[in-house]
## 1
Amino acid sequence: MTEPAAPAVPRARAALAGVAAAGAALGVGELVSALNGPDQSLVAGVGTEFVNLFAASLKDFAVRTFGTNDKAALVVGIVVVSLAIGALVGLGAARRRVVGPLGFAAFGLLGIYAGFQDSQASRGLTVLAAGGATIAGALVLDALLRAAATGSPRALDTAESIEYPSNPAATRRAFFGWAGSAGAFAIVVGAAARALSSRSAVEAARSAVKLPQPVQRTPGPVGTGGTTRPMPTVASLDVDGITPYFMPNDSFYKIDTALITPQVDPATWKLEVNGMVDHPFSLTFDELLALPQVEESVTLSCVSNDVGGEYVGNALWQGVPLATLLDRAGVQSGATQIVSTSVDGWDCGFPTEAARDGRVAMIAVGMNGEALPLAHGFPARMVVAGLYGYVSATKWLATITLARWEDFDGYWIPRGWSKEGPIKTQSRIDVPRRAHVPAGPTKIAGIAWAPTRGISKVEVQVDDGEWRAAKLGDVLSANTWVQWAIDWNAETGQHLVRVRATDGTGQTQTSDVTEPAPDGATGWHTRSITVE
Ligand SMILES: Nc1nc2c(c(=O)[nH]1)N[C@H]1C(S)=C(S)[C@@H](COP(=O)(O)O)O[C@H]1N2
Ligand SMILES: [Mo]
């Protein structure tokens, strides 16, 4: 009597063996990678390549999802997809043993490819991590498949075509025991990798940074020194729920392509100034701190901010004027672009003029009285008033290179964004916070910004009524947003509320509605409010 050909390894067990083996492979890969510190990870490396490859076609998605969240979703997605592929490899290997090692080797090569794209990752460790992951995955899979081969007589006739012949000693219990152990191993090793890559070292270095007293500081209380500096006082308009003049560091918007916040040790960090300069040089963090510091409030904005969006923030920045470094380097004529790169390989560029036309342009080391938070570029970043972040605001700064305008395009330029990125005049309605308000006297309030030009007027229109001028709050300079507010006697019904700002040159925001790409959204922020 002949039974239909069936593998000695039941499919469910083969798939489970593959998942457990893939988990073990990921765990070993992360553990070895973590030896180079928290920046290195095969999973994150693959994720970064994914972002870089698809950032052009998915540019909005990439900026919104990967830019603002901590990318946990992407990392979890990669792990889940890896485990699913592991299941397929397990199924394949149950029929052809070689599928196991080949499948894991393909995984490993992908990890090596991704790791090699990251200038920060140690190549030796990348190869070691990927190799270790491949071997661990293949060995665990092989062992589990052996344990999974049942004693079922079904398979006896086809044993020749099946690489894991039935094993009478194998019991269901033993298999699940081994698979469970492999899963537990993956989790323990993964947790160990996380612990090894704990961020505390650089966080501790950050906490120890003592910001020097700026030689030029904005008016306000004078500090006594220490790891935090006092903030100038800027009177806020008295409206409930209005956006504060200084956005606190932990609520300041965050955009970047980094999957893992770069961990830069200030003790070994260096800033290189090179390219078309007479005297290239580099500075350590202490040398940078020792240079005369300025303190300026500047509003940063992301080009991908929608009208009414949250990707804008105002902070008090402390740092060294870019001009100080350029003067020391001696910029050669014809160097029309200032390119900056980050330790994680991101880059951007803006016209050299912008550092010379009197606007605020600095290498910032402080944000709202503290050393830069890691997420905002510790130990140093670029801040240039009036330019969107994607052309100017390099976090985790590594190099400043003088180049010709036509010789270099930053990260986002080939991905469909305009090469020049001046910030457009914008205004936003923040109050009322909700879409439903009770009838009666209330306020409409928000912020407006046109960094370098300043805001001269903000007007509000309810339904098709008159445009009424709002009251404006105090500002420290034309580089910052301004709070605005206006009284409103809210009458029952549905209302449309609009805002428009006029900049310091007398130019009023256009009502033309455009998308963020390629050079920043336009249009008037309009909200529908129901008064009950
Ligand atoms: N290294 C690095 N710096 C970067 C970016 C990045 O992806 N990597 N994104 C830029 C963009 S698009 C913006 S809008 C600002 C945002 O700065 P923030 O996260 O401190 O708000 O950082 C800029 N600096
Ligand atoms: Mo941005």
## 2
Amino acid sequence: MNHCWCLFYILVPCFSNFTAPMGTVLSPDYPEGYGNNLNCVWLIISEPGSRIHLAFNDFDLEPPYDFLTVRDGDQSEATMLGRFSGAEVPSHLTSNSNILQLEFQADHSMSGRGFNITYSSEQTISYLKIYLY
Ligand SMILES: *[C@@H]1O[C@H](CO)[C@@H](O)[C@H](O)[C@H]1NC(C)=O
Ligand SMILES: [Ca+2]
């Protein structure tokens, strides 16, 4: 018998929600390499009326097949704030709403180091202060 099952790409799901006011989102097994066939969705949920700030401490994904998509809100069609791949560390970004969605996809081969992203949430007032500063 010919074992063709190996040709099917089985996506390993990984989901989690972050509700603490600040925290760190790491790719699976960071910094050892994240592996293959991933479709991860992380939601960062802050207080209504606040915004979430992302700072990329480290970033290394196999371009262009592995990438991270950041969306403003929890819907799959929510506005995309950025899509990142490769080894260039993205500049920081801030949500417009109180929910940020990070979706990480990796294909069937090759892995980079992964990513280390810290987030913090700010009430809109203090966000404006920081923004104007
Ligand atoms: C993620 O980056 C932060 C800031 O550079 C660092 O303090 C922390 O140790 C890193 N986490 C890991 C698991 O490397
Ligand atoms: Ca890959």
